[in-house]
Amino acid sequence: MLTGDKIETATSIAISSGLKTRKNYLFFMRELTQQNEIIAKVQELRKNVKNTTIIIDGKTLDVILNYQEAANAFFSIAIQAPCVCVCRCSPTQKAEVAK
Q1: Lower CB density within 10 Å: C or N end of the chain?
Q2: What is the phi/psi pair of residue 82, to 5°?
Q3: Measuring CA to CA, how many Å separate 8 from each of 5, 33, 43, 89?
Q4: Do 84 and 3 form a contact (C-beta atoms < 8 A)?
Q5: pTM for the whole thing?
Q6: Which residues, at least 6 apart from 88, have a Cβ–Cβ distance to it below 8 Å?
Q7: How far does Cα 70 stand from its chain's mean position?
Q8: ∠ at Cα 51 (65, 76), nearest 5°?
Q9: Which pLDDT does position 89 carry in this prediction?
């Protein structure tokens, strides 16, 4: 799910729409600006990703998309999650994955 809403609103939408089930945990990735912070959060997420709804803000996703190592780490885990909600996302945000 992609939304321009605040994290709290996006979380409520994910719950009320059924994207996040009762047995799923919520895992927040917000305001992360350094590649090493992101990789550390991804390692933490790895423990229980199959039962986790990931809530990530646009700023953090922008950083991920600018660093190949962070992108590889995040997307290899995120595809295993039942739901990923990107909030505070703007169509004007533009990034290219670093080579």
Answers
A1: C
A2: -65, -25
A3: 8, 20, 24, 14
A4: no
A5: 0.81
A6: 4, 5, 6, 7, 10, 57, 58, 59
A7: 12
A8: 30
A9: 63
